Amino acid sequence: MMNDEIPSDTALMAAAARAAHLIVDQPPVIFADTLAYELLGDRAEEFVGYHRLHGDHPVLAGARAAVTTRSRYTEDRFAAMTGVDQYVILGAGLDTFAYRAGDKSRVFEVDHPATQRWKRRLLADAGTAIPDAVTYVPLDLEKGVDGLLGAGLDHGRPALVSWLGVTMYLTREAIGATLAVIGGFAPGTEIVLDYMLDPELRDAAGQAYAEAVAPVAAERGEPWLSTFGPREMAALFDEHGFDVAEQVGQRDAVEAALWRRSDVLRPAALSMVARAAVRG
Ligand SMILES: C[S@@+](CC[C@H](N)C(=O)[O-])C[C@H]1O[C@@H](n2cnc3c(N)ncnc32)[C@H](O)[C@@H]1O
Prior knowledge:
- It contains ten helices and seven strands.
- By secondary structure, it is an alpha/beta fold.
- The protein has a seven-stranded mixed sheet, with helices on both faces.
């Protein structure tokens, strides 16, 4: 659905929400994306400014809760996977893991070509060093993920595949086709993805967020194309050779202490984080 020439607006929004979390929310910090603000460059103040001025608005606070919980969950999981040093980010957007992690891990950033070109310009403008360990893989996930197979990943060893904030923009067929390819990775490979819950599984805050955000995303060329329930997602994993490790909502994606807060961040029943491992 995305225009080949226009970078992803939702990637910008997600990065702004991560940057804003460190500025407008009170401790405890859920996720410290210490490079998001500078990566946004000239546009940082414009987009973080919405959070400064209207940070209590349910859509902006909801966005901060969603992006911080999913990233925290995923990076914590990678840190806990001893011996796994390959990190694949599908639909990487402005994810900054590679530039915070240095050369400790091999990172493969997969994204729509226009968004990846834009990110690389932003990195250059910010003067951010590109670690040797980063490989950029431009491709359209609607057209298949086979390009990842020749990208230099060591297919004899497991990886963590991060797929955050993307499945809602893809058809079920494209999600299944991507899972089919990842399902052929070395046993021990794990995937962490998030998905939007079917409307009947959302709470009032989740439904209000969806009603406000989905039409705007569609207008900007990134419509929500799929939502799931946990059972349907489990079946999709099973079909493509994965064992589900867990599926958690925003509340349970991070430790309970992070929700003892004096600010407006609250978990909503809107999206789920699912983690599954390639069957041995
Ligand atoms: C909401 S952003 C999420 C970015 C990042 N994962 C994060 O958590 O901030 C969605 C990302 O999915 C990418 N994306 C959407 N549809 C895609 C497609 N068909 N092929 C490749 N990337 C796609 C966009 O380019 C964008 O980077």
